[in-house]
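Morning, I've got a small favour to ask if you have a moment. It would help a lot if you went through both lines with me. I owe you a coffee for this, so here goes:
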Amino acid sequence: MTLPELRIKGFTLLFLLSISPFLLASESTPIETEKLLIKNVYLNSPDKENETLLVNLIIIDKKLDLVTQDEVKDEGMTKVLDAHKGFFLGNLKIGEPASFMILNENPGENSKVLLDTKKHLTFAISKGTIIKSSLDEFDKAAPVSDVKKKKPKQTGWLAYQPPPRQIPLSYKTGQRKWNTWDNDYFNGYFLAGLVLDRQKWTSQNNASEQQVGDLTTFNGGEIRALRFGVAGQLKFDTPWVYVIAGATNAFDKGFEKTIVLASDIPGISEIQNHSSIWVFMETKNGEHLADLNKANKILNTHWIYNIDRNLAMKEIVPILIAMQENKNKDSMHKKEGMKSYFSYADTKSRNISLLLFPQTNFITDTSTTNVMKEFRENTCNAIIELNSDEIKLNGIRKSLTALVSTLEKEQQCTDEEKLKVMLIFDEHTSYQNYLELKVYLHANDIHCEPAEYFHTVK
């Protein structure tokens, strides 16, 4: 009977195994053990026919816990037995009560072994209880194991000894798990995980709401990251452990979905005690709408606005007005000196930079003619208009880079005066153009008036 025939006629083996406790009951008294290690057992390879693997078996609380080709330390084991390269026959289901036999010859080469279990059986266990054992305890057995002839030497810098690696045990089908691989030189696993965040506040009293604001805005869940990697061993005499891992935040709205403005003009690089407010762009029925996420906002901190650069100002201005009102509301625990900032990507330092967003009065009254006229009466003042992607200085179209030189030439300021700019923009102006202009003016020390005029295109 060949090895493949043994697998096909597995019902015969299981039958023999099932009746063996009755045949052997008279030979020994059942023994129970909490942690049993059996070394040097031959197992038919689940991948290659007519090949065997020399393995170690661990049984914990009557259940098969581990089958490995790696060296297993004896520490912590109740009993350690040496199978003397006996042949395994039985059930190989991890986590289930152990039921198998160990024979002193290979039944795949000598079928008569199965007909005389009394002579050839060295170990038998049924449902976690040892029925027969003629195996030597390991401290009395041969000291050298072919599983690993050389024990790994732990170097001084090695953080930990790698744990034994479970071999694939699709014993019935001969198929290896899809996420593992093993050959003569290395083995490994493919690993992946999805990291989720979820938060819900069940209650909040008035004192808490006065101090930190309404916590129900923090309720919600999101995908933080998808993480994946491979890990395994390189099969040197002293095995090397390798781990290669990566992650993507493509599913995190706070990173990938928001596309912030990129600029080569440096801004404020760091502030302490801050919280973030995100404004994403959602598309519904062909319209680009603003989606406010203020779940991380804390009332008594600096606020950093992270806004999608593709949004139109008609979507952003109402949010900025509402958030300023929220920050300025009276609170017994309100902390003075907390400011607001716009964020953008500094392409030179490759870091996030910040632009101060002072208290701003957004005026939506479209009749700005008189206001503009009065403002222009001072020769040190200038009006900049943003109409979609077009920039006008005092009614004349200009490029962004030409603004500063034109202002210095045309505006007439005394030594005591400082150039002031009034900003007017229409509803279709993108947040990118708006913030790009503000960053450029601030970098050239040009002050913008606290009142900005926002008008609707008819």
In short: The chain has four domains: 3-140, 180-248, 258-356, 361-455. Residues 258-356 form one domain. The first helix runs from residue 3 to 8.
